[in-house]
């Protein structure tokens, strides 16, 4: 197309505005490239803004400042032990880049991180006791000024249309807010909300821009697709065999439906890992949605037969995989000890009365009655509770080893011999319905170590890059530790920007 045919012209166009997108945009703009961030919705941040903002970026200055004994070598060992050789080149690129990326980000006055304890998800060589992930420091809203309204509100308010809470931006909103500050501070990064990219413009085999409806954006150096997965698109989930449900996904409702992924496959991009997601137990919500559930402090989870099927304190992706294999429906069974509240963290947390009124929770004076209400065999549920309570008294879960790993114990609060095993024997009893939730799909465009999108034959499509859940994750069917989705999205957003800048 001639210059006059474009509505706007940039060096780099970034599609989406999560952590990977804004990291790529910042790195491109900091390298001197005119950059545009095109976001489909009215607010920035997508699922990244909802997140806890843990960043699994190993061996950086942040861990060093906190006195955490971490290194790129240890992270390499850990990833290799979990992921094997399949994605060895991207694993290597990832661990070799984390420290450099964090140094660049923290060289900007807008960005500062702090280590937080949060254990890695597997007992494997290279695991760091207490965990290696870190988070951005809270961001006073005044620092963003009017731009604070551009950051997506936290999930519990966003789902109810309640807008922004008072006080500083925390968690994922602090991450998005800080990256936004850094991006706009370069003077070379434009933000366009309400801009849904649906096509790629190709000339002579090279991606030279994008279209958002009738609007055309030129990208002289390249396009970075960082527009999430397709978790909110029921038809695409069906087509690619992703279990769970678009309604139970944690991505903001109107965000990630996969149009950029389809636009890339339409020009010959290869995909990988379809069917995979970052899984989690989802607490069924009165409105039909799901709430990310982690950190159980009591209770046990039963399948449709009234039997336990996993260590309920597993890291959420691993528990999600157990749920996917179980005979559903599943219920978290707990008792009066938690005073009518869920003995776990649910995001968002809806009051018990609403759950009981909607039937997503049941309450009964006996386990027999509870079994009838949730449709499981009463004798099986009673036997499960009796066996579990005996394990709690002894402090050993002979069936699923709950409480044996550092991660299991991280959230535990029981005062018995095993803090993860709290008896369930005080009426009234509760059963909360648990579904297979996700934090986003992780199958998507096949990419190389520079985030370049590849064709089936392994050649790169010139001018096209992808990161975050738009790309097939280097972690395959494994979620290694807290902050891996965001950490990997940031690294490959950065590496894509460096490639576009010729660095
Ligand atoms: C409660 C919660 C806590 C979590 N905590 C963590 C954590 O601590 N650490 C961690 O690593 N992960 C965490 N996750 C998972 C993580 O947030 C996501 O997997 C990750 O943020 C996805 O990043 P992304 O950039 O791929 O997509 P997103 O952050 O969802 O960003 C995609 C953006 O692209 C936009 N978009 C979509 N289509 C288009 C289009 N056609 N044109 C333009 N824009 C488009 C969307 O509107 C959206 O704003 C958490 C998730 C949840 C829900």
Structure description:
InterPro entries: FAD-dep_OxRdtase_2_FAD-bd, FAD-oxidoreductase_2, FAD/NAD-bd_sf, Succ_DH/fumarate_Rdtase_cat_sf. Pfam families: FAD_binding_2. With 503 residues, the chain is of the alpha+beta class. The chain folds into two domains: 333 residues, FAD/NAD(P)-binding domain (3-Layer(bba) Sandwich); 158 residues, Succinate dehydrogenase/fumarate reductase flavoprotein, catalytic domain (Flavocytochrome C3, Chain A, domain 1, Alpha-Beta Complex), CATH 3.90.700.10. The chain has 16 helices and 19 strands. The strands form four sheets. Strands 1, 2, 5, 6, 7, 8, 18 and 19 form an eight-stranded mixed sheet that branches. Helix 1 packs parallel to helix 8 and helix 5 crosses helix 16. The radius of gyration is 23 Å and the shape is globular. It starts with 7 loop residues before the first strand and ends with a helix. 56% of the residues are buried. The model has no long low-confidence stretch (mean pLDDT 97). The site of flavin-adenine dinucleotide has 44 residues, from helix 1, helix 2, helix 10, strand 16 and helix 16. The site of flavin-adenine dinucleotide (FAD) has 44 residues, from helix 1, helix 2, helix 10, strand 16 and helix 16.
């Amino acid at each position: 197309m001639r210059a006059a045919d474009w509505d706007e012209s940039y060096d780099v166009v970034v599609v989406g505005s999560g952590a990977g997108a804004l990291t790529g945009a910042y790195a491109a703009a900091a390298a001197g490239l005119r950059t545009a961030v095109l976001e489909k919705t009215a607010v920035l941040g997508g699922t990244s803004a909802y997140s806890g903002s843990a960043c699994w970026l190993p061996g950086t200055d942040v861990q060093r400042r906190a006195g955490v004994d971490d290194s790129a070598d240890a992270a390499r060992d850990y990833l290799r032990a979990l992921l094997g050789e399949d994605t060895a080149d991207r694993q290597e690129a990832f661990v070799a880049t984390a420290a450099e990326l964090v140094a660049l980000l923290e060289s900007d006055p807008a960005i500062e991180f702090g280590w937080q304890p949060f254990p890695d998800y597997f007992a494997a060589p290279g695991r760091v006791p207490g965990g290696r992930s870190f988070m951005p420091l809270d961001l006073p809203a005044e620092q963003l000024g009017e731009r604070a309204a551009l950051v997506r509100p936290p999930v519990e308010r966003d789902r109810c249309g309640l807008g922004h809470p008072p006080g500083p931006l925390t968690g994922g909103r602090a991450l998005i807010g800080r990256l936004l500050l850094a991006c706009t501070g370069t003077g070379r990064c434009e933000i366009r909300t309400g801009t849904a990219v649906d096509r790629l413009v190709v000339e002579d085999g090279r991606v030279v821009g994008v279209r958002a409806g009738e609007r055309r954006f030129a990208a002289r150096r390249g396009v970075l697709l960082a527009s999430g997965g397709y978790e909110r698109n029921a038809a695409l989930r069906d087509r690619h065999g992703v279990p769970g449900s678009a309604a139970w996904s944690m991505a903001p409702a109107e965000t990630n439906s996969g149009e950029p992924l389809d636009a890339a496959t339409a020009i010959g991009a290869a995909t990988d890992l379809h069917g995979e997601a970052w899984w989690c137990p989802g607490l069924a919500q009165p409105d039909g949605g799901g709430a990310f559930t982690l950190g159980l402090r009591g209770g046990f989870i039963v399948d449709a037969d009234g039997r336990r099927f996993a260590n309920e304190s597993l890291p959420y992706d691993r528990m999600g995989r157990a749920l996917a294999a179980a005979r559903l429906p599943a219920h978290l069974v707990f008792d009066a000890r938690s005073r009518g509240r869920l003995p776990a963290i649910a995001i968002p947390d809806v009051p018990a009365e609403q759950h009981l009124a909607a039937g997503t929770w049941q309450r009964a004076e006996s386990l027999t009655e509870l079994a009838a209400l949730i449709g499981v065999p009463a004798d099986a549920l009673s036997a499960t509770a009796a066996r579990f309570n005996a394990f709690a008294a002894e402090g050993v879960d002979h069936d699923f080893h709950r409480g044996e790993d550092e991660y299991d114990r991280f959230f535990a609060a029981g005062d018995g011999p095993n803090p993860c095993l709290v008896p369930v024997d005080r009426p009234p009893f509760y059963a909360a319905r648990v579904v297979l939730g996700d934090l986003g799909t992780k199958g998507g465009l096949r990419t190389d170590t520079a985030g370049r999108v590849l064709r089936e034959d392994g050649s790169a499509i010139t001018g096209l890059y992808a990161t975050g859940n738009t790309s097939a994750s280097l972690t395959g069917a494994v979620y290694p530790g807290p902050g891996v989705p965001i950490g990997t999205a940031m690294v490959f957003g950065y590496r894509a920007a460096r490639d576009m800048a010729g660095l």
